[in-house]
Amino acid sequence: MPTGTALRDAREQLFDAAERVLLRDGASALTSRAVTTEAGCAKGVLHRHFADFDAFLADLVMDRIARIDNQAEALRDSAGTGTVTDNLTGALTELFGPVAVAIVALVTSRDGLRARLRQAGVAGIPIMTEATAMIASYLVAERELGRIAPAADINTLAPTLVGAGHLLFADRNGTPPETEAVRKVVTTVVRP
């Protein structure tokens, strides 16, 4: 006899539920029970698809990292179009949506998750590391096009932009910064 309603794409539904809990209640409230309750399914559903809760969280983070890879390609393709400042302002604003900021907090708060991610080959702080690579790749392309200084230190500029961007967006309970605040950071750091 069935005990519940079948989930069509259990993995995505569980990820979406985890994001809602994370955004609403914060990293400390993210438990397997909170996720399955939010998804409207039995706790066993999560454990049927993932070895344990840290495995679930690691897959969630890896899935969100893959989304940055798509954004990185679009940002690289924008090199030579628009302005460098506008492209970077838009990229940082898109990158540091509420979910990404919450995932950074989640990773820094859970030792088991960080261990799982290291086992999977994820270096540094997920989201931040990929964001830095994304921005660096874009800056290299713009430097090659002559739109930023030939001597621009990409290895300093990229993490500076990502770190400053994260600080602007990091207040989980506040409103996102105005576009002008992000633009000011970009202009100050890059000076295209």
Write up this protein:
With 192 residues, this protein is mostly helical. The radius of gyration is 19 Å and the shape is elongated. The relative contact order is 0.13. Helix 4 runs parallel beside helix 8. Helix content is 70%, strand content 0%.
The helicity comes to 55-70%
Parts with pLDDT < 50 across at least 5 consecutive residues: none
Tell me the total number of β-strands: 0
Instruction: Supply the helix-strand structural class.
Output: mainly alpha
Overall geometry comes to: elongated
With helices defined by DSSP (H or I, 4 residues minimum), what is the helix count?
A: 10
| Overall pLDDT confidence | 90
**Beta-strand percentage range:** under 5%
> Can you write the helix and strand succession as a string?
HHHHHHHHHH
Distance between the termini: 65 Å
Largest sheet: none
- Return Rg in Å: 19 Å
Features:
70% helix, mainly alpha, elongated, single chain, 192 residues
Outline of the structure:
This protein has helices at 10-25, 32-39, 43-49, 53-77, 84-95, 98-109, 111-119, 128-144, 154-169, 179-190. With 192 residues, it is an all-alpha fold.
